[in-house]
Design a protein that fits this description.
The complex is a heterodimer of chains A (310) and B (359). Chain A has one domain (5-297): ABC transporter involved in vitamin B12 uptake, BtuC. In chain A, 74% of the residues lie in helices and 0% in strands. Chain A has helices at residues 5-34, 42-60, 63-87, 92-110, 127-132, 136-140, 145-163, 165-175, 177-182, 187-213, 225-235, 240-262, 269-288, 291-297. The radius of gyration of chain A is 20 Å and the shape is globular. Chain A starts with a helix and ends in a 13-residue tail after the last helix. By secondary structure, chain B is mainly α. Chain B has 15 helices and two strands. In chain B, helix 3 (56-81) packs across helix 11 (279-289) and helix 7 packs across helix 8. The longest helix of chain B is centred in the C-terminal third of the chain and has 28 residues, at 241-268. The chains are: A mainly alpha (310), B mainly alpha (359). The interface between A and B is large, with 46 and 44 residues.
Chain lengths: 310, 359
């Protein structure tokens, strides 16, 4: 294997591709958490997005419907979480866990007849430029539209949170729901919207896996990516741009690990596969050690139940 | 008109009654799902909840599955009561099974009364050590225990996979991903001829009694409960928060490790990849359904074990995919959490006229 410049270009391109589901899910969850809601159901929403996207693709043979449908299914399943935590005031952690368990079971049940069906090729953009430009070609071109969207998303999210009035409202609701409510903001409504948005992004992240990254349906195919996305939000100290950086690091580890396996590195496969999970722990430790910094950035009301006496 | 009022205190009777509401709603929800899937809901529910326990063998299988669930949930109740979110019991179970299984493999060609106790203790210690990782990281590095304990589940499963295909695989096993069979001295004694129910159930019952004693009769139990209700109060009272976090995680890990060792020395008899159908995750639901109460957990473990059995039976007789088990488990927790609303709020149906008069 030669480490020439074009190989590095291809390598970076593949790292970007593997980080897409993490960017999407973590950006969605970031908005949810910024509004003060901790949704641990990311893994469950992703897997539901993955199966509904794939199933819709097989049934309708239309990739657009499949992508939109996966986002809608993420919205629907996150609505369960929203109704429970916001309207029935349930504990966020327990409800999120229930959502993940429920989602994994439901996806396997729905996906029973879709195992082994080959996926469809997803159209990529600028494929001619990918081949003709060395190094930059495979980095910048020849990706699916979802990848371009994912890489724009952290910047859009950053702009939304920092520069728009709605973004300010979301942050206010997350940092001080009582004062936001006193200002006449409907805290519950804002949180509902943020939860549903998070659901849509997680659904899309799942569909990216089953339609684009590894176009087929495999049970449990999200393989803990939802949990890594949750860790990424902490890693990023709730800042969208850092989510992008973190997702690229994790994408890098995943790809590196695959390449090490491919060239027969003298470490057992299982240890390499464990790398992303171990890295998550190490990164969390490094980030969280400074408790002041974490406290400063954490949405103040994260995971707390808000109840307004009527 | 419906009026919703906040309750001042939670009625205890209702607190233990709402889990039954959740179970009934889950059964109704399950019927609807079966109907959508194109099955006769009554028939499907019968295969799910009645057929599996209609004979002695089925009842033994129910207890067999309830045993690990009960053990793990008892351990988790210590964590959850004190506001520590250990959700990696599945990893602690796996690591406990690895350590216990390692000891059992050391004695694979020996017999002796001392072997089984050694294996059991090793399993408990294994689970305890594995649970200490998120606990230490939480107490000394302020790291989120939810994410760490969960990441370790994947790590432990990969470690088990490495061991059973690599260094610990059976040399006479034609490269199957499994270890040697344990010797009879490493196996849990069976309680009845022809049934799979084994002595591990006594471990679970002992854990129930012990946890009841610790939680309700000791100073440690008092500290755990106060910390769960209000961390500020606990600090004000001068409780050593860090030690308590380590202790509850150790208890929880040891219980999960015991559950793992119970599985491999009980029905399985060796190590392979599939030692647990996610008992560690399902036990979270058991702990909540049992209201974190030792005796409630016994009841809840039987109910949730039935969803495992029912899923298997329904798959055999009706070709309903076995994942309906997980769907049921998720639904139980959803409905349980939802019905908690009744604990904190009073729903009153008012007569409109009277209401107007008051204004």
């Amino acid at each position: 294997m030669s480490l020439d410049i074009s190989f590095i270009g291809i390598l970076i391109g593949s790292i970007m591709a593997s980080s897409v589901p993490l960017i999407l899910a973590a950006s969605g969850e970031l908005i949810t958490e910024r509004s003060g809601v901790l949704n641990l159901g990311v893994e469950g929403m992703m897997i539901i997005g993955a199966i509904s996207g794939f199933a819709l693709m097989v049934i309708t043979d239309n990739l657009f419907i499949a992508i939109v449908g996966s986002m809608l299914s993420g919205v629907i399943i996150s609505l369960i979480f929203g109704f429970l935590t916001q309207s029935l005031l349930t504990n966020h952690v327990a409800t999120g866990l229930a959502l993940t368990i429920f989602g994994i079971g439901l996806s396997a049940m729905l996906g029973k007849n879709f195992v082994g069906i080959p996926g469809k090729e997803f159209p990529i953009l600028f494929s001619s430029l990918k081949e003709s430009i060395p190094f930059f070609g495979p980095i910048l071109f020849g990706h699916s539209i979802v990848l371009y969207f994912a890489f724009a998303l952290p910047f859009l999210t950053n702009y939304f949170l920092k520069k728009t009035k709605l973004g300010l409202i979301v942050r206010a609701v997350g940092d001080s729901p009582v004062s936001a409510s006193n200002q006449g903001i409907n805290v519950i409504l804002v949180r509902y919207c943020c939860i549903l948005y998070g659901g849509a992004m997680c659904g899309l992240a799942g569909a990216y896996l089953s339609l684009i990254y590894t176009p087929q349906w495999i049970e449990n195919m999200t393989a803990g990516r939802g949990w890594i996305a949750l860790a990424l939000v902490v890693f990023a100290t709730w800042s969208p741009i850092k989510v992008l950086i973190g997702a690229l690091i994790f994408g890098g580890i995943t790809i590196l690990q695959l390449h090490m396996q491919a060239i027969g590195f003298r470490i057992p496969v299982q240890f390499l596969s464990a790398l992303p999970y171990l890295m998550t722990i190490i990164v969390l430790v490094v980030i969280s050690r400074d408790s002041r910094k974490i406290k400063l950035n954490t949405p103040t009301s994260l995971g707390r139940i808000f109840y307004k006496e009527k | 008109m419906i009026k919703i009022e906040k309750r001042n205190d939670v009625p205890m009777a209702l607190y233990f009654f709402t889990p039954f509401i959740a179970i009934i709603l889950t059964i109704l929800g399950g019927g609807i799902i079966f109907y959508i899937l194109g099955f006769n809901p009554i028939e499907a529910l019968k295969f799910y909840f009645i057929t599996p326990i209609s004979n002695l063998y089925g009842f033994s299988e129910l207890l067999l599955k309830a045993t690990p669930l009960c053990l793990i949930a008892i351990g988790l109740s210590f964590c959850f009561k004190s506001n520590n979110w250990n959700i990696g019991a599945e990893g602690q179970l796996t690591f406990g099974a690895i350590v216990g299984g390692g000891v059992a493999l050391l004695f694979y060609n020996q017999e002796g009364f001392y072997i089984l106790p050694l294996v059991i203790i090793a399993g408990a210690i294994g689970g305890m050590i594995f649970a200490l990782i998120p606990a230490i990281l939480k107490t000394y590095f302020n790291t989120n225990e939810i994410l760490v304990s969960l990441m370790l589940v994947y790590v432990s499963k990969l470690l088990l996979d490495y061991l059973v295909v690599g260094p610990w695989s059976n040399p006479e096993g034609f490269n199957f991903p499994e270890t040697r069979q344990f010797s009879d001295s490493s196996r849990m004694p069976l309680l009845f001829e022809g049934l799979r129910i084994h002595a591990g159930i006594f471990l679970a019952l002992a854990a129930v009694m012990l946890s009841w004693f610790v939680l309700y009769k000791t100073y440690l139990g008092f500290q755990i409960k106060v910390s769960g209700l209000s961390l500020k109060t606990a600090k004000y009272a001068g409780f050593k928060g860090k030690t308590m976090i380590l202790v509850v995680f150790m208890i929880s890990g040891a219980c999960a490790g015991l559950a793992g060792v119970g599985e491999i020395t009980g029905p399985i008899g060796q190590l392979h990849r599939m030692i647990s159908p996610d008992y560690g995750f399902t036990a979270i639901i058991v702990a909540f359904l049992g209201r974190l109460n030792p005796f409630g957990i016994i009841f809840a473990s039987l109910v949730v074990a039935l969803t495992y059995l029912g899923a298997e039976t329904a798959q055999i007789f009706l070709q309903i995919p076995k994942y309906t088990g997980q769907v049921f488990q998720g639904m139980i927790l959803f409905f349980l959490l939802a019905s908690d609303y009744l604990l904190f709020f009073k729903v009153k149906i008012l007569n409109l006229k009277k209401n107007e008069l008051r204004h």
